[in-house]
């Protein structure tokens, strides 16, 4: 499932003032249907982008930046998300932190970890919802609230990912378990412990949902369900 592309669509329709056909709160209780919904919306956005900026020249990575700049009315949303203020800065800090020694409940370790993931996973999801909200004609206040929602689910995704890495088997995950520990990476369980990491993920979920208060309940339903899906996922 391509979460970023789906978020572009959902954030756009959550903030638009026009009535749209949306995912209902009743349907949101069905995880299989929700995942199918997310896949459909990600394909919808990719199709629109492919038609807007044909594949070819410029090269792929430049094309990707152009696609999202076009969507966000020329605003440099994706450039900021992947540059030194975003993904590049977060990755540099991530690499610098490999092998660093932090004790459990070490505030410095948690601050270092938060910096990394605010600038990596969270930054990319923030960019996706901001692009969608701009396209949907959202107000500055709506865009900011959606951005904060995305930051919460981005951090939450990483917290859950770190917990699963040390509590699930490779067979359950569908990928190598314990790879972060073996690589000497700084993780939430390493800094906070497994149980406190789970509690933190639940807190981030509550904060994410709080940022959606005031949005139309039917339009916000996919965003609410996505937050629940992320915090409860098992692989």
UniProtKB/TrEMBL annotation:
The keyword Metal-binding applies. Its cofactor is Mg(2+). Coiled coil: none annotated. Keywords: Magnesium, Metal-binding. One of its GO terms (cellular component) is cytoplasm. Pfam families: polyprenyl_synt. The keyword Ligase does not apply. One of its GO terms (biological process) is isoprenoid biosynthetic process. Gene3D superfamilies: Farnesyl Diphosphate Synthase. GO terms for molecular function: geranylgeranyl diphosphate synthase activity; metal ion binding. It comes from the Eukaryota. Belongs to the FPP/GGPP synthase family. This is Uncharacterized protein. It comes from Brassica carinata.
